[in-house]
Amino acid sequence: MRALEILEEVSLFSDLTMDELALIAPLCKVIEGKAGDAIIQEGERVQNVYILLSGDATIKKAKADGKLVQIDQVRKDDLLGEVTFFKNTPASATVVANSPFKALELGHKELHRLLDEHPELGLKIYKKFARVLSVRIKNILARLVEYLPGA
């Protein structure tokens, strides 16, 4: 499958024109892995943004005692590594595949450069990233409330 065909199926890019998709396509690489593979490792520098094309994964965060706690699940079409895309800091959580997976990989530096060179495209992508982050935060907060003591 060609990069353009893959990009057309990804919701993150659903608002883009074919010309805009053609600008992103050369930055894309499809990676594959198996269940148990760490796609992103907490504490390590993340150089890429990933979009799951197939499979699912668990996002885990280390507690002070080192024990990993599940904080979210991701599935096909979900975005990974978006926080480090903005902050350029080590990963704040680990993402572990639950099943064999394929993911679209886009390098941070190359994507930043493209979005800087094409501000209209940048605006569209940044808006999508913001939507993804706001939904993820809303879902995590909803689950967190269940663990808080009553007022």
What's the multimeric state?
single chain
Give a short account of the largest sheet: 4 strands, antiparallel
Low-pLDDT runs of 5+ residues are none
Helix share bin: 25-40%
The N- and C-terminal alpha carbons lie at a distance of: 54 Å
Shape: globular
Strand content: 25-35%
Average pLDDT over all residues: 91
Strand order of the largest sheet: 1-8-3-6
Number of helices: 5
Radius of gyration equals 16 Å
Question: H/E series, N to C?
Answer: HHEEEEEEHEEHH
**Computed structural class:** alpha+beta
Number of strands: 8
List keywords for this structure.
4-stranded antiparallel beta sheet; single chain; 5 helices; globular; alpha+beta
Layout of helices and strands, plus pairs?
Blueprint: H1 3-9, H2 18-24, E1 28-33, E2 38-40, E3 48-54, E4 57-62, E5 68-74, E6 79-80, H3 82-87, E7 94-97, E8 101-107, H4 108-117, H5 119-145
Antiparallel strand pairs: 1-8, 2-7, 3-6, 3-8, 4-5, 4-7
Can you put this structure into words, describing what you see?
Helices cover 38% and strands 28% of the residues. It is built from 5 helices and 8 strands. A hairpin with a 5-residue loop joins strand 4 and strand 5. Helix 4 packs across helix 5. It is globular and about 50 Å long. It starts with a helix and ends in a 6-residue tail after the last helix. The relative contact order is 0.20. The mean pLDDT is 91.
Structure summarized in a few sentences:
This protein is an alpha+beta fold and 151 residues long. It has helices spanning 3-9, 18-24, 82-87, 108-117, 119-145, and strands at 28-33, 38-40, 48-54, 57-62, 68-74, 79-80, 94-97, 101-107.
